[in-house]
UniProtKB/TrEMBL annotation:
Protein name listed in UniProt: Alpha-1,4 glucan phosphorylase
Catalytic activity: [(1->4)-alpha-D-glucosyl](n) + phosphate = [(1->4)-alpha-D-glucosyl](n-1) + alpha-D-glucose 1-phosphate
CC cofactor: pyridoxal 5'-phosphate
Assigned EC number: 2.4.1.1
PANTHER family with a match to the protein in the record: GLYCOGEN PHOSPHORYLASE, GLYCOGEN PHOSPHORYLASE, LIVER FORM
Keywords (A to Z) from UniProt: Allosteric enzyme, Carbohydrate metabolism, Glycosyltransferase, Pyridoxal phosphate, Transferase
PROSITE patterns for the chain: PHOSPHORYLASE
Gene from which this protein is expressed: glgP
Species whose genome carries this gene: [Ruminococcus] lactaris ATCC 29176
Summary of the function given for this chain in its UniProt record: Phosphorylase is an important allosteric enzyme in carbohydrate metabolism. Enzymes from different sources differ in their regulatory mechanisms and in their natural substrates. However, all known phosphorylases share catalytic and structural properties.
Lineage of origin: Bacteria, Bacillati, Bacillota, Clostridia, Lachnospirales
GO MF terms held by the record: glycogen phosphorylase activity; pyridoxal phosphate binding
Record-linked InterPro entries: Glycg_phsphrylas, Glyco_trans_35, Pyridoxal_P_attach_site
Length: 835
């Protein structure tokens, strides 16, 4: 870097406190006609955010200018979900201005934490998949890579969860109610997206080329909103582009006839509906037409926009892949494949082969699950009616691929049956993504292995060069620097702040594990974080929890495969033991849950009710002297997740082995010094590899054992039920009224899922009873380890010290090296902070 540039960069770190305070005051005045003292906390949040955005804008402009000048290749990360959480605090961290702003606000009698709490989470996602997309954007910007996130600006994000009488109640998340200070509407980039109708075919009389004309369609305008994605300390600002819909307004309604009027109303309704709400299913395909509309809507708009941008600079669309790479986050955006083909053939005039060359060199696919119920398979009827031209293209992709399969495996129709896109009246989106994409990746070593050896075996055999692994990661900027400031400062005091952009440096903490004073400090910070969480629990749940007890936390979406039921059944078992043997030594435990259930997912909702009912009974039983507490955190989301990870002693990662593709919550707990209590599933395997099995609590069937059982018709839980009276007692307590005020039916679906007295599917498909004893043993080991505080503090610290691999910076560098092939772009400072 030149000396001049370096000076500029250093100078830009100077925070102009006076200028910032003036900006906030001015904003309060112009936005609300108020003084600082009169403004509400929400108004102060807005005023502060606009002041921050002012600075971001200059870097944003400068970044985009640099990208343009350097003509750098860009990744477009296509995702139905971006679980961003709050922006203000994270932006300040990444601008390296958090402490300065906090101090400046304090001088104005404003508490930054209070202001931050005024910001609603941008909850445009369900869970791990959406949060991964958000972490990736943070890493891409921090690592100086040109990138766009492309998604949908849902008017209602993930529903807010209220707990009423122990049951989950879903409340709409009107997150845009007060306005989003960080977004910018880009009307000038609006694109039309068409649905339905029919396709008329004609030959162009001049060129003689085939033309496909869509008629009688409905259409909407897609209007983008851009949100800044601030890199850490490097002045890079990338863009998250989310699409809103508005009706097409060029009807002449003053001279309207009935037909037009109806069409106008229909298009208005379509526009309203299409971006109205995020489907709240995690790892589960819902098959709804509106969902497919959402997918095509944001994909078509994003592709039109990226092609327009590319053409403005380059002209020759045949070389698109040299400057653009499209990463499809799961199958949700895979309609990008035929849509890109359509745009290249029908609009750009390329031949099929030319279009295929471009498409198959531009698109890459990430697989997120092997669970059958999560794989998208659209009924052909629905698909072809909604997207008639796209369906024609899918048919042609399929026809050509099937020929290839038959050539490769003559006479083997089983291969065609397994790999074709169109089969049994369905469009299989994963197959299309694999066939068209140049890269197929799993999200943890074990997951990729299972894909290659089992689920996608046929594809792997035919095209092994496409397959690769990219173990997920998380951003330490949000989940340590912002979420756990005490630990972040302590780490910086010990090893410097290099870890913020190079997490491998966190291994420098390893020698300190032998330093008793360092361990004491580490545990004191954990204690302070537990006090912070205890305060949150008191405020939100009205429950007193003792920060000296073991904080054992399971927070994630509620799903049978994640086995919250195993956790709560084990708590019921512990409670029975404590009641029966009051003299038994038992280290006080606080079990903390947080989980949203998809609105229609009955067993998941029953599990929430069960957790809350057990909490009621246990927390109010004075005879156990507070040895056991159970807490259900309402409305688990990114903002309270940050508080939970920081305060955890034990990280519950107890999915049925083979079911959790990676997990990312597991990494956040590890980073914050919580050993994993888990199965050898997903990225847990790699966590254990990094930290050593002796610093985790591993239990349960292996993925191979689970798969073997599954291939042989499952196992019989009834044997366990009748041979282990303690397990039987716990299962019976689901039905005997202990946790339901005498209602014998409240948990009948859970009971049946375990023993299959009524269900049509197999019993205990998630091996809860099978793994129960092994889990209980592991929990005993946790307790013993915790009693030895010296030993525990070493384990906890080692988890933090060994978490370097799990930064999303590492993941992104691997995507860049193996799939995207991007170049870093340096950006000079656009403006001195608040100067
Ligand atoms: C709010 C939120 N939801 C869901 C997840 C995913 O959690 P898990 O990987 O445990 O399923 C995370 C963490 O990654 C998160 O922060």
């Amino acid at each position: 870097m030149s000396r001049k540039k370096e000076n500029k960069r250093m100078f830009s770190k100077r925070f102009e406190k006076a200028a910032f305070k003036t900006a906030v005051k001015e904003n309060v005045k112009t936005l609300y006609r108020k003084t600082i003292d009169e403004a509400t906390p929400q108004q102060l949040f807005q005023a502060v955010s606009y002041a921050v955005k002012d600075v971001i804008i200059d870097d944003w402009i400068e970044t985009q200018k640099r990208y343009d000048e350097t003509d750098a290749k860009t990744v477009y990360y296509m995702s139905m979900e971006f679980l961003m959480g709050r922006a203000l605090g994270n932006n300040l961290i990444n601008m390296t201005a958090y402490k300065d702003v906090k101090e400046a606000l304090e001088e104005m009698n404003i508490d930054l934490n209070v202001i931050e709490d005024e910001e609603p989470d941008a909850a445009l996602g369900n869970g791990g998949l959406g949060r991964l997309a958000a972490c990736f954007l943070d890493s891409l910007a921090t690592l100086n890579y040109p990138a766009y996130g492309c998604g949908i600006r849902y008017r209602y994000g993930m529903f807010k969860q209220k707990i009423e009488n122990g049951y989950q109640v879903e409340v709409p998340d009107n997150w845009l109610k007060e306005g989003n200070p960080f977004e910018i509407r880009r009307e000038e980039y609006a694109k039309e997206v068409r649905f339905g109708g029919n396709i008329r075919f004609e030959k162009d009389p001049v060129t003689g080329k085939d033309k496909f004309i869509q008629e009688n369609y409905e259409s909407v305008m897609a209007v983008p909103y851009d949100m800044p994605v601030v890199g850490y300390g490097n002045h890079v600002v990338n863009t998250l582009r989310v699409w809103d819909a508005k009706p097409i307004t060029d009807f002449k309604l003053d001279e309207f006839d009935r037909g037009n009027y109806h069409k106008a109303v229909e298009q208005e309704n379509l526009a309203k509906l299409i971006v109205d709400v995020l489907y709240p299913n995690d790892n589960h395909y819902s098959g709804k037409e509106l969902r497919l509309k959402q997918q095509y809507f944001f994909i078509s708009a994003s592709l039109q926009a990226l092609i327009a941008k590319y053409k403005k600079k380059h002209g020759d669309i045949r070389k698109l892949y040299e400057k653009v790479v499209i990463q499809m986050n799961d199958t949700h955006p895979t309609v990008a494949v035929p849509e890109l083909m359509r745009l290249l053939i029908d609009v750009e005039g390329l031949s099929w082969d030319e279009a295929w060359e471009v498409t198959s060199k531009t698109c890459a696919y990430t697989n997120h699950t092997i669970m059958a119920e999560a794989l998208e398979k659209w009924p052909i009827d629905l698909f072809s009616k909604l997207l008639p031209r796209i369906y024609q293209i899918v048919q042609e992709i399929d026809r050509r691929f099937v020929i290839q399969v038959r050539e490769t495996y003559p006479g083997n129709e089983e291969k065609v049956r397994k790999m074709a896109i169109l089969m049994d009246g369905q469009v299989r989106m994963a197959n299309m993504a694999i066939i068209a994409g140049f890269s197929v990746n799993g999200v943890a070593k074990l997951h990729t292995e299972i894909l290659e050896k089992q689920e996608l075996k046929d594809f792997y055999q035919m095209m092994p060069e496409k397959f690769n692994n990219k173990t997920n990661g998380i951003t330490q900027r949000r989940f340590l620097a912002h979420g756990n400031p005490l630990l972040a400062d302590w780490i910086t005091s010990k090893i410097g702040d290099g870890w913020i952009t190079d997490l491998s440096q966190i291994s420098k903490l390893k020698p300190l594990v032998e330093d008793e004073e360092a361990r004491r400090e580490f545990m004191e910070i954990k204690y302070q974080n537990k006090v912070r969480l205890a305060k949150y629990i008191k405020e939100h749940n009205g429950i007193d929890v003792d920060p000296r007890s073991i904080f054992d936390i399971q927070v994630k979406r509620l799903h049978e495969y994640k086995r919250q039921l195993l956790n709560i059944l084990h708590i019921m078992y512990l409670y029975n033991q404590i009641k029966e043997h009051p003299e038994m030594s038992f280290y006080p435990r606080t079990f903390i849950f947080g989980a949203k259930a998809a609105a229609g997912y009955l067993r998941a909702k029953e599990t929430i009710k069960l957790i809350n009912s057990v909490a009621d009974v246990v927390n109010n039983d004075r005879s156990i002297n507070g040895k056991l507490k159970v807490v259900f955190i309402e409305d688990y989301r990114v903002s309270n997740a940050e508080i939970l990870f920081a305060a955890a002693d034990v990280s519950e990662q107890i999915s049925t082995a083979s079911k959790e593709a990676s997990g990312t919550g597991n990494m956040k707990f590890m980073l914050n010094g919580a050993p994993t209590l888990g199965t050898m599933d997903g990225a847990n395997v790699e966590i254990v590899q990094e930290v050593g099995e002796e610093n985790a609590f591993i239990f349960g069937l292996s993925s191979q054992e689970v798969i073997n059982y599954e291939n042989n018709g499952g196992y019989n839980p009834v044997d366990i039920y009748f041979n282990d009276w303690e397990i039987k007692r716990v299962v019976d307590q689901l039905m005997d009224g202990t946790y339901s005020n005498g209602d014998h039916n409240m948990y009948i679906n859970l009971y049946n899922s375990l023993l299959n007295t009524q269900c049509t599917d197999r019993a205990d498909t998630y091996f809860i009873l099978k793994d129960f004893r092994s889990y209980a043993d592991a929990q005993k080991r946790v307790e013993e380890a915790y009693r030895d505080q010296q030993k525990w503090s070493k384990m906890a610290m080692l988890n933090t010290a060994c978490s370097g691999k799990f930064t999303s910076d590492r993941t992104i560098e691997e995507y860049v090296r193996d799939i995207w092939h991007l170049e870093k772009v340096e950006v000079p400072s656009g403006q001195d902070l608040f100067d």
